Amino acid sequence: MFQVVAHAFGSPEDALMYAPAPRPAPGQGDVLVRMRASTINPSDLIPVTGAYRHRTPLPFVPGYDGVGVVDETGPGVDPALRGRRVLPLGSAGNWATWKVLPAASCVDVPDDITDEQAALAYINPLTARLMVQALSPVPGDRIGITAAASGIGRMLIRLLDAAGASPIAIVRSTQARLSLRGEPAEVIEEGAPLPPLAAGLDAVGGLAGARLSAAIRPGGLLLHYGLLSGQPLPPALPGHARASVKLFRLRDWVQAASPADLRAAMSETFADIRSGLCASRVEADYPLAAFRDALRHNARPDRDGKILLRP
After folding, report:
1. Keywords for this entry (predicted)?
2. pLDDT digits (tens, 9 = 90+) for 58-74
């Protein structure tokens, strides 16, 4: 078995190592999953830098998204699960050949969902669906989205449009604006005046998040779910007295959800992938051993799709 592991905090290219490890054995209630593919998300890389060191014990293996096949079952688990293609959810550790986790944390992958889409089905699509449900948009609502040209930004645009809302896509460059051609959104470059908004979805923080908050009408909601700028939202937000600000973290929802709730939510997410609302574009595949090349590709400013890692 091989895995990409962090023994210290730092730059992902420097802190992560490709290393052999013993094949793990499933314990009571566990399964052993042989990974087929995983991907790279900001939520995988940020803990490596030490940003969450208070809750990130070393060493650790990154990777929340991924798909694999149950290879072995532990005591108390139905042996019929062997051979099932699953999403191993609820914890990091997918940047490896094998992963042990509770059988209850696995979600079956429908036969018509490819490995490529399954490996990308959790973090972005589920987050997008849950946040749109939390906003409960009504037809005609204008809803602002920062980092709108990102993978999850495009999903939010499509889900909001399908709900009858009017997405306002906020982007940082002309290139990002052009990349959203054909998407059902009004596109505005960061710093330009925003129209009055019913709500907002912020993945950036800092000044961009503050500007989005200022445009939200009284009683509206800003859902803050990312920190791509590296800067937190200002303590005194413009418009803070008018709009409520809530932090959305997928891990909080998953930890509170029952296995049945998680499976039901993923069933809806698989439907979103089939319909194209939450389908992801794959730009490149790399073997896990070439993870540094994959990280460099992932960081390219002109990247227009997800990067897959194959064990």
Report:
1. NADP, Oxidoreductase
2. 999 999 999 999 999 99
Q: Which residues of 138-168 are buried (b: 16+ CB within 10 A; e: fewer)?
A: eeebbbbbbbbbbbbbbbbbbbbbebebbbb
Distance CA 217, CA 4 (A): 46
What type of residue is 198? A
State residue 239's pLDDT score: 56
Q: Give 248-251's long-range contacts (Cβ < 8 A, gap of 24+).
A: 248/127, 248/130, 248/131, 248/134, 248/223, 248/224, 249/225, 250/43, 250/123, 250/126, 250/127, 250/130
Domain 2-120+280-310, architecture per CATH = Alpha-Beta Complex (3.90)
pTM: 0.93
- Is 197:146 a contact under the CB 8 Å cutoff? no
Please write the tens of the pLDDT for every residue from 188-220.
999 999 999 999 999 999 999 999 999 999 999
CATH number (3.40.50.720, 3.30.2350.10, 3.40.50.150, 3.90.640.90) of 125-250 reads 3.40.50.720
Asked if 128 and 41 count as a contact pair (C-beta separation under 8 A), the reply is no
